[in-house]
Amino acid sequence: MNITVVGSTNIDLVYLVPHIVTVGETLHSTKHELFFGGKGANQAVTASQVGANVHFIGNVGADDFGEQVKQNLQDKGVNTAAVQKVGITGQAIIQLADSGENSIILFPGANFLVTTDQIEANKNTIASSDALLLQLEIPMPAVETAANIATQNGVQIILNPAPAQPISDSLLRKVSILTPNETELAILTGMKTETEEDLYHACNFLLQKGVGAVVVTLGEKGSYYMNNQEHGLVQANPVNVKDTTGAGDAFNGALAVALGHGNSLRESILYASKVAGYAVTQLGAQPTIPSSFQINK
Ligand code: RIB
């Protein structure tokens, strides 16, 4: 099962706080931690830890952090032959509240230096994958180039539309599975996403645009999904939440692997929820996923 992830890498500068700081407030942080992060890297590391062969295409900075970020990917079993060192390593400044909720400021650095040429140069890696996993922390032309290569070669595309931004209809048409959270779904569709009925209409709107399936991550409420055959809620099991940073990434990495192994969409969502449910009980966006979660079918 070969997965290619095209995306971002970051160093996460995490500050533990009693609550997310409000406008005009000055707040003491009780603890500071450095973790490896970046939506692309987080998804790649999860996919690798649950049993896939993963290639990562993206950038790290030409600095000490960049070296550490690349080494970490290798240590987690991710192939980094297509990782370039350029600019400054991306940073995420994260407030992590006692509730497990967070707020994030992104400094993109090297991530915004991913080019379409770089993606084209790694065409064969994408073309020979079972699935391509994309997010939106690198420039949109690079995302679109990767999607074009995947489509031309019959590779299924999972797009996690985060951070939220407008997506062209031509890209949406190429997406096999779109995985927004409620906020991203609202921004993408311009529709309400509060009730199950809202979710039905918003997902249906995206299916009419040509998206293969939509899986909306709803945090502790679970997920809502829709494809051309079925739709519905999949509840998440209650867990002891420590840190929700990267929960969506763990979900996406695991979802891609479960689907690649031939599981149905609903079965894959159930599995991805379990992996994400474990991830939020640990600190950091790339927790070690126990080998008991591996899919070896
Ligand atoms: O999804 C969580 C990730 O978003 C963090 O690891 C941070 O780096 C930001 O990219």
Task: Report what the structure shows.
There is one protein chain. The protein is 35% helix and 24% strand. With 297 residues, the chain is α/β, with parallel strands linked by helices. It has one domain (2-23, 30-293): Ribokinase (UDP-N-acetylmuramoyl-L-alanine:D-glutamate ligase, 3-Layer(aba) Sandwich). The strands form 2 sheets. It has a 9-stranded mixed β-sheet, with helices on both faces. A hairpin with a 4-residue loop joins strand 12 (223-226) and strand 13. Helix 1 crosses helix 9 (247-260), helix 7 (182-189) crosses helix 8 and helix 9 runs antiparallel to helix 10. The radius of gyration is 18 Å and the shape is globular. The model has no long low-confidence stretch (mean pLDDT 96). Bound molecules: alpha-D-ribofuranose. The site of alpha-D-ribofuranose has 16 residues, from strand 2, helix 1, strand 7 and helix 9.
What would you call the structural class? Answer: alpha/beta
Assign an overall shape.
globular
Number of domains: 1
Low-confidence stretches: none
Sheet with the most strands: spatial strand order: 5-4-1-8-9-10-11-12-13
Contiguous helical run count: 10
Small molecules bound: alpha-D-ribofuranose
